[in-house]
């Protein structure tokens, strides 16, 4: 029943089947035969994957979700679809010097579809898609692991045989329940990793189909599958840059597994100066060189297009993002990079200490070989070298295949995050371990099989395996709960990375957003203490102190922030606000101008500059500044309002009316603009239109005392005294301290009393 096959590393049909069956039989005491049929295996894996992360389905948008989704205009219908191909993951133009250069248009497209189907920024739909994607990928892993453990053997009808059902099911379960995946599944931005993994695996399985032979299929069919695999790799790359590494994995699979390239044998021939070309000729006849040419050409084409799209070159990261990459000594850089690799390996082995961010002092630099943490490097490379030697030099072809592909999946997808080819913007990131964890699951499953084979305590091994699955499931459920809100997520990081300034900063920001300024100040101060150059923490702390009228310290903090980072436009603007409050008008104007110099399209800064000019009675300059703000941001309600009020106060009623009507055309539902224009129309004796706008504004905001008070003034002028009395009284109920309303109400009452006396 197996007439045609590519027996990954096996010399003949029967021995390969026998060895694979033995490995699978070793796991019989762990997995019952009732769940081994492919359909049931996939169903179990899919359901387990959903159970692990179901708790995150109703979570909020947290951490990077705010920038990549909530503040990303590429998700909204107003942005042309074509812009997605010219913008980075965060919605900025790729040609901009400030762009992150993360080009993932297909991922952003799925966010946009989510936004459209959800009818807005409702996080539940986004989270459900992520959970289902992880479940689908886990199901797909059953087929991938079946190839990795069982090899490629086909029936006469071209159907691949599942020769390692227990091994593939156990590995897929280990993958489905791995807690390190929580960031990808529970964090919406993790969809980039999920989509990348989906098409990565489809590309690998597609490449495997190139080696399916039958009478009806030949070279053309093989080429088709290779080309399809390259195309799927390109799609994976458009979801996340890591996707291109599937081409390298396919090449390793082809050379070492399909081509049976035995490194030990080649080394022996070189040492014995064997000039035989038989092996090379076999590879050429097998089409290996042709397939390598296709893979190389496809990869080179992808890299070229990607580089052209990036425009201005790689992104610029700061020292706090990746301190090791800024170390002067090459030795220090190498030691720390390898220490980061060992931390990633530890997260795969023991995913108990998880953190949303590992930068800003979370992992102090190793500055000398006397640091005890160097032991972790030695342990990592001891294990890796041992595995590599076994993978390349073992005489057991079955063992070579499993270890080679396990290491391939572990190492190759991780290479873009390794700092070897370019600087990355993080120290450790759990999300980049989603694909490498496939290799970890292969090696772990193989290890369990080897232990079962060489020990009689099979029940103990079964208990360990089931214990790992249960504990990991429990950890996934707990960690998914922590990702449901920013407060829980940020606080969970304190026990893992107490030295991480960004953790304290984010907790402070979350508290400030909730109005707890006192607690926020404490966390911001700790962030600045841990990282004295943390300008964003200084800026936010300065803002809170400004609101609490602690202007002197606010000015010192903001001045230090712009001294550390001279192009920090937001800090320059906030410094200008503080200086304006301190009556240092010239310095404030200079700060605003500097902010605009560093960020030309800065409507809020133009608005604040206009307020400064208004305070200095430079009315023309104020109007010009506010007009610039509305040009840059047509929905800038405050700038429109200030223009209307200034023109009203200076007696330019016709111009004020024109500006008010222009503003309401752009922002038709803004009740503050209705109120301001209604005041102007009332002064112009357009009472009916003014009344309509006042009533509309009150309907939108019925508890605004000034709205009722000014409508009462309109009725007072208009002669509708009973209505004036009614709205004066409502206004005073809402704000009993309003002196102007009290005075006008008193005048009205005296007028009504005089009228009553005349009637008598």
UniProtKB/TrEMBL annotation:
GO cellular component: endoplasmic reticulum; membrane
Transmembrane segments: 131-151, 188-207, 219-238, 244-267, 288-307, 374-393, 405-426, 432-451, 460-481
Record-level GO BP terms: endoplasmic reticulum unfolded protein response
A GO term for molecular function: dolichyl-phosphate-mannose-protein mannosyltransferase activity
Annotated metabolic or biological route of this protein: Protein modification; protein glycosylation
Topology class, membrane: Multi-pass membrane protein
Domain called DUF1736: residue spans: 313-385
Main location as per UniProt: endoplasmic reticulum
Subcellular location: Endoplasmic reticulum; Membrane
Enzyme class of the recorded protein, top EC level: transferase
PROSITE patterns listed in its UniProt record: TPR, TPR_REGION
InterPro entries per the UniProt record, alphabetical: O-mannosyl-transferase_TMTC, TMTC_DUF1736, TPR-like_helical_dom_sf, TPR_rpt
Positions annotated as TPR repeat: 501-534, 535-568, 569-602, 603-636, 705-738
Keyword vocabulary terms for this entry: Endoplasmic reticulum, Glycoprotein, Membrane, Repeat, TPR repeat, Transferase, Transmembrane, Transmembrane helix
Function: Transfers mannosyl residues to the hydroxyl group of serine or threonine residues. The 4 members of the TMTC family are O-mannosyl-transferases dedicated primarily to the cadherin superfamily, each member seems to have a distinct role in decorating the cadherin domains with O-linked mannose glycans at specific regions. Also acts as O-mannosyl-transferase on other proteins such as PDIA3.
Family in the record: Belongs to the TMTC family.
Protein name listed in UniProt: Protein O-mannosyl-transferase TMTC4
